[in-house]
């Protein structure tokens, strides 16, 4: 391997002036690379700053044993966001997307040619590109955007909730018949199986059912069509990912 292309997920200070940077490659795997002498270095020698969320091509030094940490020779942008860092809230959500992706991704195995994790790269790259585009155009609905991101991660992990039938009796679900979201079962119950909706109002469960189902039918760039304007069903999506051990909320630094 002489170069990698990937999105910068995380930077960790190392020794006095060095950084260890973790990238998500096009194959959807994580690789860590050592950058010598770049920390706090200002001036003409650092031509391309290592900002998270940007995509880089990094040329790798070929010396060293295969098991050693790879070190960077030179690097350049392939793509960079322009508007995300102008808005603190949007930038925080970028950090959240990157941290979650970092938890989800497996370490790169260079002798493995499989492309089964490419979906993760596409989800993240699409998510960051659209975050920047909508921020620039001043039409970002951050809750809807993040809901879509979580829904795509559910699909990637094969834990997308069953929305078509009641998880208990298999009856076909329509909105007037949905009772609540059953997290551990990965689906929804109907009113017959889960009490009377008048006694147990489950507006949130019904809304979650409607919007998560809608994410299957629209593209990522159409997230503005989702009716997600607050944190409530976004939290349900995140807790669902956590309960299936896709993410570990307590280990998220930016949360
Ligand atoms: Zn049922």
Report the average pLDDT across residues. Answer: 88
- The SSE order reads EEEEEHEHHEEEHH
Which structural class do the helices and strands define?
A: alpha/beta
- Radius of gyration, Cα only, in angstroms? 21 Å
Portion in strands: 15-25%
End-to-end separation = 35 Å
Low-confidence stretches: none
**Helix amount, in percent?**
25-40%
Q: What's the main sheet like?
A: 5 strands, mixed, barrel
Bound molecules: zinc ion
User: What overall form do the CA principal axes indicate?
Assistant: elongated
**Strand order of the main beta sheet, please?**
1-2-3-5-4
**Extended strand count:** 9
Number of helices: 5
Structure in words:
By secondary structure, this protein is α/β, with parallel strands linked by helices. The chain is 30% helix and 23% strand. The chain contains 5 helices and 9 strands. It has a 5-stranded mixed β-barrel with strand order 1-2-3-5-4. The protein has a 3-stranded mixed sheet with strand order 7-9-8, with helices on one face. Strand 8 and strand 9 (187-190) form a beta hairpin. Helix 3 (142-157) packs parallel to helix 5 (232-243). The longest helix has 19 residues, at 118-136. The chain is elongated, with a radius of gyration of 21 Å. The mean pLDDT is 88. Residues 166, 168-169, 171, 189-190, 192-193 line the site of zinc ion (ZN).
């Amino acid at each position: 391997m002489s170069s990698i292309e990937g999105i910068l997920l995380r930077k960790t200070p190392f020794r006095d002036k060095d950084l260890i940077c973790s990238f998500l490659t096009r194959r959807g795997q994580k690789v860590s690379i050592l950058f010598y002498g770049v920390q706090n270095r200002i001036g003409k020698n650092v031509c391309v700053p290592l900002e998270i969320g940007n995509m880089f091509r990094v040329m790798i030094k070929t010396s060293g044993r295969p098991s050693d940490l790879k070190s960077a020779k030179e690097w350049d942008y392939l793509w960079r966001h322009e508007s995300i860092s102008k808005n603190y809230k949007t930038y925080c959500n970028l950090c959240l997307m990157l941290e979650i992706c970092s938890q989800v991704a497996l370490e790169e195995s260079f002798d493995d040619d499989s492309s089964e994790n490419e979906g993760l790269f596409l989800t993240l790259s699409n998510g960051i590109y659209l975050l920047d585009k909508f921020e620039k155009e001043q039409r970002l609905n951050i809750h809807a955007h993040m809901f879509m991101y979580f829904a795509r991660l559910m699909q990637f992990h094969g834990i997308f909730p069953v929305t078509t039938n009641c998880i208990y009796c298999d009856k076909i679900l329509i909105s007037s018949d949905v009772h609540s979201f059953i997290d551990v079962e990965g689906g929804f119950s109907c009113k017959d199986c889960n009490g009377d909706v008048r006694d147990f109002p489950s507006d949130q469960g019904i809304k979650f059912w409607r919007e998560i189902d809608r994410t299957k039918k629209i593209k990522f760039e159409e997230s503005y069509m989702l009716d997600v304007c607050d944190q409530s069903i976004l939290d349900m999506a995140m807790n669902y990912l956590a309960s299936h051990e896709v993410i570990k909320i307590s280990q998220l630094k930016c949360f």
